[in-house]
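User: Hi! I have a protein structure encoded as tokens and I'd like to know what sequence might fold into it. I'm fairly new to this, so please keep things simple.
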């Protein structure tokens, strides 16, 4: 029997590669599906989700406010900043008031990092100066002076000192202070509503099994993820993976769901997103 092909979008970074190691290498039963892995930066995936192009994709939680009419959140695959998160870095350390007056290089306007930045500044995107730059060119943009501050996601959160840059703010730490310890909801996986409810559950369980396999076979999965670890050795890549593939990734839980409600709720109250989405999750059989 021919296997059903599914498009699966995710970022070319170590944590997503770690999550989908078992699927990519055929290490768990595929339940009759063949996954076409589409590796693109998160802003591109957010844009593609708005057009409904992919069957399953990683998206920013910020972007969920724009795609919830087409996609349902999967219960696993979350990237949560639990006491850490996107960083604001610069050649000199600036205060919040100073950052608000600088040009900021950001990795995309639909990223959760950009929404967190707006909440932290207390300003909408219309009220400060920024330039959108591919996430892997933000360091270069700040070093060259084309922007004075960089909003860093992915492994740059661990490697920025090597770039000669200083920390202005960790938005995950700030969010935890503001919310009494909630993690900052950054990314999640979604599945298109064109799939019937029972099939969504089947696919959701398969993706959860892939994540659990990687957590149970960590050394091998980290080795696989290394091919996407820019300027990182095994030890640093393993640390980064541990930051974003953990118990939150297997299931959001009540606390994780509340963090999304709070994050998008604050954004809507301040006019930063047009609609307040109802959180809709695929129910899991596991």
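Assistant: Happy to help. Inverse folding works backwards from shape to sequence: for each of the 286 positions I chose a residue that suits the local structure. Here it is:
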């Amino acid at each position: 029997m021919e296997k059903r092909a599914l498009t699966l979008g995710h970022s070319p970074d170590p944590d997503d590669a770690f999550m989908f190691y078992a699927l990519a290498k055929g290490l768990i039963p595929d339940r009759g599906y063949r996954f076409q892995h589409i590796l693109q930066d998160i802003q591109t995936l957010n844009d593609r989700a708005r057009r409904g192009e992919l069957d399953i994709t990683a998206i920013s939680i910020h972007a969920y406010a724009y795609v919830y009419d087409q996609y349902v959140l999967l219960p696993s695959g979350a990237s949560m900043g639990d006491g850490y998160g996107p960083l604001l870095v610069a050649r000199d350390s600036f205060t919040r008031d100073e950052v608000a007056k600088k040009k900021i290089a950001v990795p995309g306007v639909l990223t959760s990092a950009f929404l967190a930045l707006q909440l932290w500044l207390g300003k909408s995107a219309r009220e400060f100066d920024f330039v959108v730059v591919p996430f892997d060119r933000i360091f270069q943009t700040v070093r060259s002076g084309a922007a004075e501050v960089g909003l860093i996601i992915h492994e740059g959160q661990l490697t920025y000192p090597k770039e000669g840059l200083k920390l202005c703010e960790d938005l995950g730490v700030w969010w935890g202070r503001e919310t009494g310890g909630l993690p900052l909801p950054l990314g999640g996986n979604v599945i298109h509503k064109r799939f019937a409810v029972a099939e969504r559950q089947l696919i959701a369980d398969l993706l959860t099994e892939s994540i659990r396999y990687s957590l149970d076979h960590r050394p091998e999965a980290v080795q696989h993820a290394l091919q996407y670890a820019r300027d990182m050795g095994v030890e640093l890549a393993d640390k980064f993976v541990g930051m974003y593939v953990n118990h939150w990734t297997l299931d959001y839980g009540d606390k994780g769901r509340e963090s999304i409600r709070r994050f998008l709720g604050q954004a809507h109250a301040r006019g930063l997103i047009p609609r307040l989405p109802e959180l809709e999750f695929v129910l899991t059989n596991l």
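A useful reference point when you look it over: Residues 197-216 form the longest helix (20 residues). Feel free to ask if any position seems puzzling.
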